Amino acid sequence: MPSFGLPEIITLVVLAIIMFGPEKIPELSRKAARIIHFLRNIANNAQDQLRAELGPEYADLELRDLNPKNFVQKHLLDDIQADIDDIKSDLSEVRTDLDGNARDARMLGEDVRHELEQASQYDDVASGAVSVPFDVDAT
Length: 139
Description:
The chain is an all-alpha fold. It contains three helices and no strands.
């Protein structure tokens, strides 16, 4: 369905004034409003007649429901939406647990790295790669 913005409406008004003149614009506007009102009445009557002929089980029928995309969404996807929401909540709980475990693993990794750095300093001292102010072997 085309959508009309302000620039399109202004362009149409200017074209109408140029084509029909300012004297005929009010008369044409009234005729256009009557035509739109007439078409809306026809559409509403057709919708009411369709509801009446289909019976009470289709009392909540909307014309949008006849669109295949909306029909599938309303009758198929809404049924499984609750299941999808349950799965999403379960997955969010799992993600929270995984985030906590990842944080714990990061902290453990930092502790191990710190311990390894300290151990490598002792190895450097023992191998003589680092000079210390006292003799390690003398003690």
